[in-house]
Amino acid sequence: MKFAVLEPDGRAHEFVLTGDKLGQEALDKVCEKLGIKEKNYFGLRHSVNDADIWLNLRNPLSTQFRPHLPGKPHRLRLEVKFFVAPQELQQEETRRQFYLCLRKQISEGKFNFTQEKAVQLCALMAQAEYGDFSRPPKSYPQFLSPWPGEDMERKIAGSHRNLEGTSSTIARDAFLNIMSKEDLYDAEVFKARTGRQKVLVAVGSNGLRVYERRTHGKLKQSIGFESIIKMNLSEERLIVVLRKMSENSKLNFVHFFLASDDAAKAIHKAVMEHQLFFYSSKVRQSVLNHYLLPTPCWALPAKWFTKSPSGDLYHLDVKHTRRQSYDLHYKNIHANSDSTEFRHDWVSKCSRCGQEEANVLFTPCGHLVCCEDCVRKGTTCLVCNCTVTSWQRVYFANDAACNDWACQICMDSEINTAFSPCGHVCSCESCACHLPYCPICKTFITFVQRVHVMFPESQGGNVDDVFCGFA
Predict the structure, then answer these.
(1) What is the dihedral sign for C-alpha 316, 321, 324, 329?
(2) Are 439 and 419 in contact (CB under 8 A)?
(3) Given this model, what pLDDT does residue 67 score?
(4) What is the pLDDT of residue 293?
(5) How far is Cα 117 from Cα 138, in angstroms, rounded to an integer?
(6) What pLDDT, on a 0 to 100 scale, did the predictor assign at position 441?
(7) Which of 387, 391, 385, 378 is CA-nearest to residue 352?
(8) CA dihedral of 76, 78, 83, 89, whole degrees rounded to 10
(9) Could you tell me how far CA 360 lies from the centroid of its own chain?
(10) What distance in Å separates the CA atoms of residue 178 and residue 180, rounded to the nearest whole number?
(11) Under a CB-based contact definition with an 8 Å cutoff, are residues 148 and 166 in contact?
């Protein structure tokens, strides 16, 4: 079987696989060619009956594609399936693909921006792609907007001029940080109906959000994952059963009518996979074994196949949660890196001012170098010269004057992790992998970042002239 895989920027890659190969092997080939190691955030997409379907990585390729004309390749699109926070991305190529995918979604009209934010994002895209305003492009990146084109061009040019001297990498990372705060950043959007009203259903990291299907549509309903008891599929309809709001209230049923059976299956799968990836501490084996009928509904008549596919076809396609994915990617990326060595110069003073405690954790390198006041003056790590995509304020469980930096859980290994989003530093790597909640504040842990306490030999550093794009 021949395949043509398109990147979000339109570049195509071709490869050949036999039909008995699993979808995972197709994704592995694409990621290997592009140098992507953080594979769990990506997927391959194709269209079936006007519905966008994710290629199931656990099922054979022959069961997921209709017969094709000889010599013509099956077309797939490499896209981001799970949009995590930018500070979780540890690889340059992954951040580039996130940027390209978001840029494409903006051009397709997925997001509703204010004019001020639209101008800011367009200027950052222009700086990332074309460089300084001294050599402006013939046309600026545009997307669907209700504002006059000439007015937008003038405002974007002014904002672009203010970014002069900013590197393309910093401009792109600033773009990602702004986009990560949008409501639909991590959401997969579906068109549906509830009764007679047309709506947009956004399936994201926290649950479902239902919007009116019009420009700047209002939020009609928000359904958290914790409120969902179960879901049922009935042809083109998805039925969501919610918990009682009170003891006297009845069960709440929400019916979403999709355009086709394939679209209904797609939104059902998206809800379950987003819940598993973002909201679960681990993926149970019973979930991994959840499978469909032995053959897909479109596989009839049987003459389409030279032989019937054997084995079960899995419905869900999540092997790892968000935290498990981060840990797995970390090990793959830093397996042979010297930067992961842990030095025991615990809680030193800020490398810039030399007065305050170093309490800001750089991402993705994981170095503690600056205090919260000085970090705003630069975005380059003084230890490894790595570009800082974002930073996080951390809080130490131990007294800075005490040299006993043993893990607060096992009291044996050294502390070398920070919890996100709370920022508490109190555990070693081994113990952190088993904690669903922070033991100090009980906040649900989205991912655990490694901390490398390594300080430069000379105090200070020339960071005044480095553009700061993060807060």
Answers:
(1) positive
(2) no
(3) 67
(4) 42
(5) 22
(6) 84
(7) 378
(8) 160
(9) 23
(10) 6
(11) no
Lookup result for tokens 């099956």: 74
Copy the structure tokens of residue 97. 């693909």
Name 362's Cβ contacts closer than 8 Å, sequence gap at least 6: 368, 369, 381, 386, 388, 391
* Residue 159 φ then ψ, to 5°: -70, -35
Q: Are strands 2-6 and 74-80 parallel, antiparallel or unpaired?
A: parallel
Residue 280 contacts residue 82 (beta carbons within 8 Å) = no
Give the N- to C-terminal CA distance of the chain in Å, as an integer. Answer: 48
Tokens of 306: 């030279």
Residue with tokens 């395949």: 3
Q: Are 159 and 121 in contact (CB under 8 A)?
A: no
pLDDT, averaged in runs of 10, over the chain (471 residues): 89 88 92 93 88 89 76 89 89 92 90 88 89 71 64 86 86 90 92 90 93 82 88 88 71 87 90 89 71 43 39 80 87 63 53 75 78 70 71 72 71 84 85 84 82 52 35 36
